[in-house]
Amino acid sequence: MPDIDLSTMTVAQLLRRWPETVRVFLDYKMNCPACPIAPFMTIDEAAGEYGVDADALTRDLMRAARSPDG
Amino acid sequence: MDTSSRIELLRAVPLFGGLERAGLEAVADAAREQTAAKGETLFEQGDEATHGHVLGWGHVRLDQVTADGQNIVLRHMGPGDMIGFVAVLRRMPFPATPVALEDSQTLSWSAPRFGELMATYPAIARNAIDVVGGRIEELQQRLQEVATQRVEQRIAATLLRLANQTGRRVEDGIEIPFPLSRQDLAEMTATTLHTVSRTLSAWDHDGIVESRRSSHLVIRQPHRLVQIAGQA
């Protein structure tokens, strides 16, 4: 993945662009995939709601998006 | 509206997705414009379905009166939504009445003209199936909610669906950008006005929603509402 600032994207934009990140959310026990408010939430906000470390989540999302399967 | 502004509008309408410029022009030229001031109807339940409409701007609520005189809100429609096409295609009377919640305008096509457009541009027919399929999915979801969920869950799920379809991100949450009354919510969730009022008041009090300050409800803690709906 090129240098994209994930903090400015909504969760829905991220999922649409890199569907392979679904797995990451599920591994964090986050139900963002298929959530009706995903178009309105940033990744930081979602992390906050689930009490998840936003930096770690962002790092794992970037890794999934960069993976060759993606 | 001139042809080019009509085309601009039609470009964003799912029913006409995938049409080239020439197709959009043909569709735009065949359209008729209709306006409805706030509170007026576009047509009445039971009327002959002479025209199918696409909402250009504004918001409408689709009301249906049952045989025993009870009113049900079928859904809310925003810009780009198609209204009345199922009746047009099935040659049956309109099954519901679209009421303008704010000043609204539609483009509409007569039944024969729309038939010709579909024959010339099969993409329109495929898109129509897609849109109608989406509506069926939504209705199945609502039916399941009515059959299996607690009232509070149903109200939460309904607000979330409205937010997902029409919501607008604002500073303190997600706004439902049209007037939504407690009676509307009661009819959409198959419960009483009293129950909706009690539930919303409790959510207002807890800061989950803001429903009193204006006619546009704001979901202030969307994630909390997702939890109440049982979706997180």
Task: Report on the architecture of this protein.
The complex is a heterodimer of chains A (70) and B (232). With 70 residues, chain A is mainly α. Chain A has one domain (6-66): SP0561-like (Orthogonal Bundle), CATH 1.10.3910. Chain A contains 4 helices and no strands. Chain A has helices at residues 11-17, 22-27, 43-50, 54-66. In chain A, α3 (43-50) packs across α4 (54-66). The radius of gyration of chain A is 11 Å and the shape is globular. Chain A starts with 10 loop residues before the first helix and ends with a helix. Chain B has 232 residues and is an alpha+beta fold. Chain B folds into 2 domains: 3-145, Jelly Rolls, CATH 2.60.120; 149-228, Winged helix-like DNA-binding domain superfamily/Winged helix DNA-binding domain (Arc Repressor Mutant, subunit A), CATH 1.10.10.10. In chain B, 45% of the residues lie in helices and 21% in strands. In chain B, strands 1-7-2-5 form a 4-stranded antiparallel β-sheet. In chain B, strands 8-9-11-10 form a 4-stranded antiparallel β-sheet. In chain B, a hairpin with a 2-residue loop joins β8 and β9. In chain B, α4 packs across α5. The N and C termini of chain B lie far apart (45 Å). The relative contact order of chain B is 0.13. The model of chain B has no long low-confidence stretch (mean pLDDT 93). Classes of the chains: A mainly alpha (70), B alpha+beta (232). Chain A binds chain B through residues 31, 35-37, 39-41, 46, 49, and chain B through 160-161, 163-164, 167, 169, 174, 219, 222-223, 225-226, 231-232.
